[in-house]
Specification:
Elements lengths: L1 H28 L1 H18 L1 H4 L21 E2 L5 E2 L10 H37 L1 H15 L3 H12 L3 H28 L2 H8 L4 H37 L11 H9 L8 H28 L6
Antiparallel strand pairs: 1-2
Length: 305
């Protein structure tokens, strides 16, 4: 019995590794997903190393000069510093502000999506495996959650909780977990009827082990696709909330807040204050969606021979 268990585990691990390498190879062969991966890799590196590569800490007041406000791209300051993307109305170097803002946007989007995925996956698995009243209760909560626009829920939560990175992460988690729960439940309902689950039950394995060691790995393909899309949506929703002035405070920059700062100056010709952060946000979301679309096609069982 122990030998059979070890052999089965080895086979499962081999299948997981094979599927992982197949997915990576397919992503690298797809020119659109490869382009998205390259852009994402560059964006992550720039965000992680922003404090070391930025010409200026745009939120250190001692480094700002109000006389340098709204300078055009390529203008040199009195201290011989060149503002390659110009400055905003507070005299902040826009290139540095974008790097710091991208750092915050990625942190908020990825962390909120991962935590929401963990919560939603656990509830979705529990709902599908337990069935009965437990399934009905969890799914009714999910239905109620999904019946409201995410931005409305986030607006209400932030109006109560206030501004801050931790507050907006919590708001994004609340708006996203239901999507993961419904996705995992649908996949887990199919997996629950398969013979390997019956075999695991006959071996008297615990329910948590059956759920997380056997059923969950087989639910990962659709979950990964949804997670990729929801990360892009979380970044976009955070940018929208910050643009409206209820997301992140001025001392904690994001791309949405940078766009909002220059919105009043668009008609006066100072386009760069909003346009450059807006283009950065657009490229970032498009890159994530390119990877997500490729993953959806690669992991779709109907596309397999």
């Amino acid at each position: 019995m122990a030998s059979d268990s070890v052999d089965t585990r080895t086979v499962v691990q081999g299948k997981v590794h094979s599927a992982f390498y197949h997915t990576v190879r397919a992503l690298l062969r797809n020119k659109f997903s490869l382009c998205g991966l390259i852009i994402l890799g560059i964006a992550i590196l720039l965000a992680v190393f922003a404090p070391w590569i930025s010409p200026q800490n745009p939120y250190d007041l001692s480094q700002l000069d109000i006389m340098d406000g709204r300078l055009k791209p390529g203008t040199a300051s009195m201290s011989s510093m060149i503002y390659w993307l110009g400055t905003d109305d507070q005299g902040r170097d826009l290139l540095s502000a974008i790097l710091y803002g991208m750092r915050t946007s990625l942190l908020v989007g990825v962390s909120s999506a991962l935590i929401a995925l963990t919560i939603g996956a656990a509830l979705g698995l529990t709902s599908a495996y337990a069935g009965g009243k437990t399934d009905a209760l969890i799914m009714r909560v999910v239905d109620i959650q999904l019946s409201f626009p995410p931005i409305l829920i986030a607006l209400i939560l932030l109006a109560v909780l206030g501004q801050g990175v931790d507050k907006i992460i919590l708001a994004l988690i609340v708006t996203q977990w239901a999507y993961y729960a419904r996705t995992v439940r649908g996949s887990a309902l199919l997996e629950r009827r398969k013979s390997y689950v019956d075999a695991a039950r006959s071996m008297a394995l615990s329910n948590p082990r059956i759920l997380f060691r056997h059923i969950l790995p087989n639910c990962l393909p659709p979950l990964i696709v949804v997670a990729t899309m929801r990360i892009a949506y979380a970044i976009m929703l955070e940018a929208t909330l910050s643009f409206l002035g209820i997301g992140l405070p001025v001392t904690e920059p994001s791309l949405g807040l940078l766009i909002a700062n220059g919105f009043d100056y668009l008609m006066s010709g100072d386009y760069w204050i909003s346009v450059f952060p807006g283009v950065t946000l657009l490229v970032l979301i498009v890159a994530i969606n390119l990877v997500g679309d490729a993953l959806r096609d690669i992991l779709n069982p109907r596309n397999k021979d």
